[in-house]
Amino acid sequence: MTQVPDGQPVSAGPIVSLNQQERAEAGHVETSVLAAEAEEPPSGRRLGRQRTRVRRRLALVCNVKQVAQAGDSDAPTDENEEFDSPETIGALAQLFAQEGYVVTVLEADRSLPRRLTSGNFDLVFNIAEGRGGRCREALVPALCEMLGLHYTGSDPLTLAATLDKDVAKRLLMGVVKTPGWRVVRTLADLQDFDLAFPVIAKPNDEGSSKGIHDDCKCADLPALESLCRRLLDDYGRPVLVEAFVRGPEVTVGVVGNRQPEVVGLMHVVPTQGEPGDFIYSLQAKRDFAHRVRYAIPPELPQDMCQRIEAAALAAFRLLDCRDVARIDFRVGPDGEPYFIEANPLPGLSPATGDIVIMARAMGWTWEALITRILREAEFRQGVLRPMLVPRGEPKRKKARALAVLTLTDDPAIAVLR
Ligand SMILES: Nc1ncnc2c1ncn2[C@@H]1O[C@H](COP(=O)(O)OP(=O)(O)OP(=O)(O)O)[C@@H](O)[C@H]1O
Ligand SMILES: [Mg+2]
Fold it and tell me: Which residues place a Cβ less than 5 A from the ion ligand 2?
C-alpha cells in the first residue's frame, strides 16, 4: 500500500462510483472494496442511487536490482542485469498512484504468494523477470492465474516461450524469417556443428544482453568452442549459436491486443567500429550514450521499414503477446528482417528503456506509454478504472510525494519484504 511517512495509507487516487450494473459486470469488485461509503451526489444533483467510494489496489510486482558488493560471489557481473532499478520502480509506483490506485510494491520472491493472497488486489502490474530457469518470467503470471488475479502483460506460456529463444524461433519459423541456429547443451554438441561461420553464441534463455559481450561473434570452430565453454560455465544454461546477421539492427515496440499498434521502430546505429560487426552487447547497452545512436524512424528505405513492422506484428500475434512487447530484428543480406528475439517484458526505465526511448522519439511521453499498457490490461480483463469518476465527482486528488525513493528504508512507498 502506498504510505506516507507517518505510516498512514495515502488516498492516492480518485474514488470510483459504481452502480449496481457496473458492480455486477466487474464481478470481483465487491471483494476489492477497500473503503466504501455512501454519499450524497455532489452539487445538488440527485442521481437517484447510492454511490460507493472504491479505492482500487494495484500490486507492482518486480525484482529489484541489488547493487553487487565486492567479493559477494563468483557470479558473472551481469547477474542482476535483468532486474529493475529502484528509480524505475519508484517512477512506476508514483504514476500508478497518480492514476488512482493504492499501490503496493512487491518483490517477486517466496513471500509473493502470501502477499498476493492477502492483498486484495484489483490488478497486478507485472515487471518481474523472476529467478530460476527458463520459465522464471512465467512464475508471476502463473501465480496470478492460480489466485484469480488480473495482471498486465503476457501469460505464462508466452513469457516462457519467448525467454527460451530456441522455442520462440521454432514457433515463428516458416512465417517470420529467423537466422539458422543450433542449441549447444554440452561441448559434445559441437562435434557435428554444421552452420556456416561467422556465428554468434549467446545464452539461450537470458535477457538484457546477459552473456552477450562484444566478443560473442565467432569466425571459426575453435573460437566457438572456447566461447561456448565460457558461457556454459558462467550461466549453466544451453547456448544458442546463430548465423551472424550483419545488416542493420532494428527493434520494434508494440502495444495492444486485438489490433496491436506499433509504437515505433528504433534503428540502433553503432558509432564505433564496422557496422556489420556490431553487437548490441551488454557493454554497448551500458555505455549506450557513447557507443550507439538511435535513429527513430530508422535510416532505412521505407519498404524495408514496412517489412520490419509487418514482421513485428506477425511475431507479436504468433507468440500471443499481450499489452506490450519489444521485438528485435536484424536485416539480412536479402533485405528481409530476421527475427532475433521478442521481449514481452521490455525494460520500462524512464531513462534507458529501449521502448521508452523509441516511444519518446515518436511523440509519446513515458507516462503515456505506461498508462497505455495499463489501460490495455484493464480493458482486456474488465478491470474497472479508478479514473471512472462520474461528472460532478471531486477532481482527482494528487498523489502525495512519492518521488524520493530508496527501497530499503524510505517509507514513501510500501515495499513488502
Ligand atoms: N543472429 C544474430 N546476428 C547478429 N547479431 C545478433 C544476433 N543475435 C544477437 N545479436 C546481437 O546481440 C544483441 C543481443 O542479442 P539478443 O537480443 O538475442 O539478447 P538479449 O539479451 O535477449 O537482448 P535484450 O537486451 O534485448 O533482452 C542483439 O541486439 C544483436 O545486436
Ligand atoms: Mg534483444
Answer: 328
